[in-house]
Specification:
Strand order of the largest sheet: 1-2-3-5-4
Order of helices and strands: HEEEHHEEHHHHEEEEHHHHH
Oligomer: single chain
Shape: globular
Largest sheet: 5 strands, antiparallel
Number of helices: 12
Length: 320
């Protein structure tokens, strides 16, 4: 897209660097943003990554839900040099019409894991350590941060109802019935989630596609879904989206215990309650239209993994 190319070039020029070449690295992964790897001269490294708003309907949706501004807030004012590990942000460029754009450290030299393959338990543990560092750091001040509270409270009931129809393309039988009971008990489940003690700043979308692995462990990026909510929701999101069903079943209790040791929390039911977030978000994901084979596989795998986690953990029964 020539508009994206021009926008990227303008951002690099503002930093006083020279563009040598550009490569699209977001295809099949990004939803709300275009992500471009730029070879540069005169900068802090030979390459950087530029993330700009999607110019189409997805970008309009992201602006409406505040996704770009949330990420701008994170990089411009919240993370600085503290934990968790995250990309260096060289520039945040706010634009009321298009949404914020970002010039970021290029993480492509680091190791990545395809979300479809799933994380192994040791990589999952590395991510959990970074999530615990984030949650512990912001727990004392979370309530006063200018960030939305409790993501599921913003999910419209009509959209969730439509999601049940879409989810039937991916799951059936007892697993699909769990999703139906989740929607039936929506108000009680969301109230319990939103009023849980120990809310903190959560990444909101910690999955394998949003993590790179380097010498310092896991590096978290894509901060568009941050929210103040139960910390275990991040752990639940990671497990439900980025572990195979077998890996999650085998290791989730120990991983949850590791997280709660680090954050001085206690109780497996906190983790079950955290699963309310992916439990309702999956009904929105199921409605997403795939534009390429990788996205189609991502949607199918994610819906199946999340729905199975809900069934295994009897999350719908928390409303009782």
């Amino acid at each position: 897209d020539s508009g994206i190319v021009d926008q990227v070039a303008d951002l690099i020029e503002r930093l006083g660097w020279q563009v040598d070449s550009m490569t699209d690295v977001g295809a099949g992964r990004g939803v709300f943003s275009a992500v471009v790897r730029v070879e540069i001269s005169g900068g802090p490294a030979s390459s950087i990554v530029v993330k700009v708003p999607d110019p189409g309907p997805n970008g309009a949706a992201a602006r409406a839900m505040g996704a770009y501004e949330r990420e701008a807030l994170v990089y411009a004012t919240l993370l600085d040099d503290g934990p968790p590990a995250h990309p260096v942000c060289h520039l945040v460029s706010r634009d009321d019409e298009r949404g914020a754009a970002f010039v970021l450290e290029d993480l492509s030299p680091h190791r990545a894991v395809d979300q479809g393959d799933g994380l192994d338990v040791e990589d999952a543990r590395l991510v959990i350590h970074q999530l615990a560092a984030l949650h512990h750091r912001f727990a004392p001040s979370a309530r006063v941060l200018p960030v939305r509270h409790s993501t599921p409270t913003g999910f419209e009931s009509t959209a969730l109802e439509r999601g049940l129809e879409a989810a039937a393309d991916y799951v059936e039988g007892p697993t699909l019935r769990v999703l139906h009971r989740m929607v039936e008990r929506h108000d009680r489940l969301v109230t319990a989630f939103a009023t849980a003690s120990g809310a903190t700043l959560c990444h909101g979308d910690p999955r394998a596609d949003n993590v790179a692995f380097g010498p310092q462990g896991a590096i978290l990026f894509d901060w568009q879904q941050v929210a103040i909510q139960l910390g275990e929701a991040d752990v639940a999101w990671l497990h439900a989206t980025s572990l195979t069903v077998e890996t999650r079943r085998r290791h989730e209790r120990q991983l949850v215990a590791d997280y709660q040791d680090l954050t001085r929390c206690d109780g497996f039911d906190r983790y079950r309650l955290g699963m309310v977030l992916p439990g309702f978000a999956v009904l929105l994901l199921a409605q997403r239209q795939a534009s390429d084979p990788r996205t189609a596989a991502f949607i199918a795998t994610s819906v199946q993994r999340i729905a199975q986690a809900l069934e295994d953990l009897e999350v719908d029964d928390l409303a009782r």
